[in-house]
Structures are given as C-alpha cells and as structure tokens.
Structure of trypsin:
Amino acid sequence: MRSLLVCLCCVLLDLTTVQSRVLMQGRIVGGHTAAPNSIRYMVSLQSTRGQHFCGGSLVHRYWVLTAAHCNIGAEHMMIVAGDYIVNSFEGTEQYAKPHRLVTHPLYNESTNNADIMLIKLRAPMVLNRYVSLAPLPKQGTGVVEGLVCRVSGWGYNSAGGGRAPFTLRTVTVPIVSSARCNSSESFNGNITANMICAGYRTGGKDACKGDSGGPLVCGGLVYGVVSWGNGCGNAKFPGVYSAVSKFRRWIDQNIYRSHYRCTRY
Ligand SMILES: *[C@@H]1O[C@H](CO)[C@@H](O)[C@H](O)[C@H]1NC(C)=O
Ligand SMILES: *[C@@H]1O[C@H](CO)[C@@H](O)[C@H](O)[C@H]1NC(C)=O
Ligand SMILES: *[C@@H]1O[C@H](CO)[C@@H](O)[C@H](O)[C@H]1NC(C)=O
C-alpha cells in the first residue's frame, strides 16, 4: 500500500506513514453533500501547505480525536475547524497547529488495532455557530447490528496536490456485527474487539480514501473513527472503524490528566 503514495509528490511531507483509508481511491462512496456547517465538530487535518489528508472530531476546545494512522508528524500538520469546502476560504474556518500528538499505546500498524489518536492543539478553538464539541459514548457501550449511523468526510483529491474545492460529504451505513465482519466470508479473523464495522450487505455506501480519522455517528454520538477497509463500498467488506467507546476512559485520562492530578492530591 505504501508505494502508491509516491505519486503524491509531497516533497516536504512524509506521507508514506499515512496508511489505510488515506490511500484508497475515491471519496465518501454513495453519499451526498452535507448541509453547510451541519457537522460542526468535524475538523480537517491538513498539511502545512493546506492539503486535506484526514478528518477528525473536536472533542474539547484543545483536543481533536482522529485515527493513529493519520500521524504524519505534528510539525507537518494544521487543524482546521469550521470548514465546509476545503481548499476554499469561507470566513468560518479556525486554524490551530498541534502542540502534541498522543497515539494510543496499543496502536499496531500491521493489524490496525487501536487506530486512534488525540491531538492537543497549541491554542483552543472558539465554539460558535460553526464549531462545536463532539459528544462521545460512555466507556464500554456497544452498538447493535443494523443501527443506522452516519459517516462524513472530505475525501481526498486523488490527483494529489490538486486544488479543486471539496465539499463535506456524508452517507448513512448500518452497523455490521463483529461476528459477520470477522467471518471467513469477510475480514477472516482480522477484526479485534476495538473495531466496529458498518456497511450495507449490497455495498455501495462507505467511507474511503481521505475520510480516515473522521466520525461515525450513531444516535448523535461519535461511536467510530474511520480506520480501514478493503476497497470502498465492497459488498463483502464493510468499512472498519475504531470503537470509540473502548477508548473513552483513555480519551478522558489524556484530556483531563492535569485535572486528575490536582484532585487526587
Ligand atoms: C502487531 O501485531 C502483530 C500481529 O499480532 C504482532 O506480531 C506484532 O508484534 C505487533 N506489533 C506491535 C508493535 O505491537
Ligand atoms: C487478514 O490479515 C492477514 C494478515 O495480516 C492478511 O494476510 C489477510 O489478507 C487478511 N484478510 C482479510 C480478509 O482482510
Ligand atoms: C476475530 O477472529 C480472530 C481469529 O479467530 C479472533 O482472535 C478475534 O478475537 C475475533 N474478533 C472478535 C471481535 O471477536
């Protein structure tokens, strides 16, 4: 998969570290354009040259939740909140550089297990009509098979380095049980307890290249982070997401660490 990236000609960016859904073709598959600023906690992770490469969710004024495989190095990244059409200035955007990246300690890039990362921003985002915080599920809460969720993203300009404006897109997909997703008919043992799957039996609707790190929202809560798949919209292979509810405690511990220290002593 890594070799595909050579065509991007990103001299400054070592994008070879960005795997999985960043590398796939196309954008949100089978979906439609989202209403302007309707998903206000959605952020775009961009290179310092303004190229969108992953999505994310603002979970605190200082913190973004995304996928671990979106880690291209803090010095190469810019976080954009309040965006609707990436690569087009609309006056609603807020920009922040990362202060530090916190990749999950169990992240394994060969199995995609624990593909989750927090980004601490250097300056807080201002909450307003265009920027809000994403509500997260409680630790350990599950989603039932068939529950219809929504995934959104800006996808990727597959021409690599192109500048055409991209509007936020969104598509609904039902949850697929881990048993079916992990079966020999599908991902054949590669699904861990830290992953959830979503997609139609007939395929056709899915997240794709450049949607990585973005939110899968079920009942108003961000239950999934776009992680990996096998093609996009393939009937045999649903999209695979990091299960946010398995990491809720880890998220809170990182965000409120200093607070915990203060209250404990
Ligand atoms: C990643 O998972 C593979 C397969 O289970 C294992 O062999 C490898 O040691 C793991 N790598 C890390 C860094 O944990
Ligand atoms: C499961 O993972 C193994 C080892 O990484 C890989 O060879 C195999 O192709 C994967 N199968 C599916 C269906 O993803
Ligand atoms: C998927 O199958 C593998 C191999 O049988 C197993 O180790 C793993 O625990 C299964 N995942 C889930 C979520 O049950």
Notes: The first strand starts at residue 32 and ends at 33. The two ends are 48 Å apart (CA to CA). The chain has one domain: 32-256. Residues 108, 110-111 surround 2-acetamido-2-deoxy-beta-D-glucopyranose (ligand 1) (CB under 6 Å).
